[in-house]
């Protein structure tokens, strides 16, 4: 009913299987080696100062909702006070998921990507003297392809909070508004027994000068500038 076990045959089969296993292990080792080399190259490219502005994408394989023109990127950077700089200036850690997406894109398009750029708040960059990162790769003709987004979304009020820094007009309007509110807080009859309209506007003008002086001093002392001047600047005092 049961056949006897031929130990010699078992040994022969084991001997025959061993080279295949060794070959499989060798192939796996080689695949992992090539993958590690590819990741090392990508990491080097992300930290490189290479400002390449073109990659050889297969346009039929690109997702159109991930293609953005430099003007669209600039508009968002100005509205939310973000910077759009070479990935080498990024001081945060680029997640493994982003590396995996780069490898997937390179395999899909049969190319090696370069010239990576990141859109993020200034605090996430190593800026030279003079919350929500997005990694882009250049397509060409000032178009960029969104590779990966990570981290937390921006604060819902960020656009409103950075609105005064969009241009001089916005900042003046804010200073005028604050001056008006502060003037309203001045107790009635503080400078005279009876408050008059003329007195109100004199106090308002005084408050405006004080607050404007503080704003100007703060701006010059810390080297601050308006959003359109810093969105693609690698310097912190621009």
Architecture overview:
It is a single chain. The protein has 7 helices and 5 strands, in the order H-E-H-E-H-E-E-E-H-H-H-H. The longest helix has 40 residues, at 7-46. The chain has a 5-stranded antiparallel beta sheet with strand order 1-5-4-3-2. By secondary structure, the protein is of the alpha+beta class. It has helices at 7-46, 70-80, 96-109, 158-161, 168-185, 197-221, 227-230, and strands at residues 67-69, 83-86, 117-120, 134-140, 143-149. A hairpin with a 2-residue loop joins strand 4 (134-140) and strand 5 (143-149). 49% of the residues lie in helices and 11% in strands. The protein is elongated.
What order do the helices and strands come in, and which of them pair?
Elements lengths: L6 H40 L20 E3 H11 L2 E4 L9 H14 L7 E4 L13 E7 L2 E7 L8 H4 L6 H18 L11 H25 L5 H4 L8
- Record field, number of beta strands: 5
Question: Which structural class do the helices and strands define?
Answer: alpha+beta
Give me the number of helical elements: 7
Widest sheet, order of strands: 1-5-4-3-2
The overall pLDDT average reads 80
**Proportion of helical residues:** 40-55%
Largest sheet: 5 strands, antiparallel
What would you call the shape?
Answer: elongated
Tell me the radius of gyration: 30 Å
Give the gist of this structure.
The protein is an alpha+beta fold and 238 residues long. Helices cover 49% and strands 11% of the residues.
Key descriptive features of the protein:
single chain; 238 residues; alpha+beta; five-stranded antiparallel sheet; 7 helices; elongated
């Amino acid at each position: 009913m049961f056949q006897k076990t031929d130990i010699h045959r078992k040994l022969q089969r084991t001997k025959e299987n061993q080279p295949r296993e060794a070959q499989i292990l060798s192939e796996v080792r080689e695949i992992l080696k090539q993958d590690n080399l590819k990741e090392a190259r990508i990491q080097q490219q992300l930290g490189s100062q290479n400002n390449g502005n073109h990659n050889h994408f297969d346009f039929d394989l690109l997702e159109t909702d991930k293609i953005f023109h430099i003007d669209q990127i600039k508009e968002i950077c100005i509205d939310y006070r973000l910077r759009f700089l070479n990935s080498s200036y990024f001081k945060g850690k680029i997640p493994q998921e982003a590396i995996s997406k780069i490898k997937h894109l390179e395999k899909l398009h049969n190319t090696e990507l370069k010239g990576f750029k990141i859109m993020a708040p200034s605090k996430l960059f190593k800026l030279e003297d003079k919350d929500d990162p997005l990694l882009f790769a250049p397509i060409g003709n000032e178009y960029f392809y969104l590779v990966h987004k990570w981290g937390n979304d921006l604060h819902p009020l960020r656009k409103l909070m950075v609105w005064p820094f969009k241009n001089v007009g916005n900042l003046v309007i804010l200073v005028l508004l604050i001056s008006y509110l502060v003037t309203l807080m001045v107790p009635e009859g503080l400078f005279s027994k009876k408050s008059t309209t003329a007195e109100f506007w004199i106090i308002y003008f005084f408050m405006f000068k004080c607050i404007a002086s503080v704003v100007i001093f703060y701006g010059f002392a810390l080297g601050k500038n308006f959003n359109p001047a810093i969105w693609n600047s690698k310097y912190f005092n621009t």
